[in-house]
Amino acid sequence: MQQDKVLTEQESLRIITEMIQKAKQDFKETGISSLLWGSVIGFCGITSFLLKEFNIDPGFDIWLLTAIAIVPQIFISIKESKKRNAKRLEADSLASVWIVFAISVLLLTFYQNVVGYATADILKNLGVTWYEKKADGTIEQLKPNVLSGSSLYLLLYAMPTMITGLNKKFKPMIVGALITYLLFFISVYTPFKIDLLLQGISGIVCWLIPGIILYRRYKKAEAC
């Protein structure tokens, strides 16, 4: 009887171990989405700051790269969802959060680029026009700016990061989101040029650094 009990305990331990290993194989966070958005946002923010600092006009809005990034994000979400069997509902929910985030970034970019011109047209129809006199004596019509619109981006960046970090109990993302909330408060009191730099920093701490950590863990698990 004692021999049967020992064998049963060993068999139970073996089954539990196999289930844990199977779960690890069924669900692995690659970190690719974080790397994608961390690279894009970090690049756009820092590059935009440098363009403003040195008064360089690239001829297009560098932030349109975020719209292009939506395409690979959709493919990444679809590809990774096919590999996930364990925790499928949880994984699909998080994927939905990031897809909605990508769409929100695109629409907010559209809003910030269009609302100023739309407001200028509305004011013009009301007989109100804003002008700025340049140092060389020329006069240029101004486009009303969205007040601290970049602060809204920082709030948006922190949202999916905090949700994912809390859901996965992944401290690097939680810390990144908290830093971004701090950057939000700072951005309220800084000019637009500095806000662009803060957005770049947010992209790095929210996604690029956590993405690198996740990707290294994923590769290490794949090697085992």
Low-confidence stretches: 1-7, 19-27
Which percent band covers the strand fraction? Answer: under 5%
Evaluate the radius of gyration.
Answer: 24 Å
Question: What is the level 1 CATH name?
Answer: Mainly Alpha
What is the chain-wise order of helices and strands? HHHHEEHHH
Distance between the termini: 38 Å
The overall pLDDT, averaged over residues, is 78
Count of the domains: 1
Which sequence of strands runs across the widest sheet? 1-2
The total of helices stands at: 7
Task: Describe the 3D structure.
With 224 residues, the protein is mostly helical. It has a single domain, classed as Serine Threonine Protein Phosphatase 5, Tetratricopeptide repeat (Alpha Horseshoe), CATH 1.25.40. It contains 7 helices and 2 strands, in the order ααααββααα. It has helices at residues 2-26, 32-53, 65-83, 88-125, 149-168, 171-187, 192-223, and strands spanning 131-133, 139-141. A two-stranded antiparallel ribbon has the order 1-2. α2 runs antiparallel to α3, α5 (149-168) runs antiparallel to α6 and α6 (171-187) packs antiparallel against α7 (192-223). The model is unreliable at 1-7 and 19-27 (pLDDT under 50).
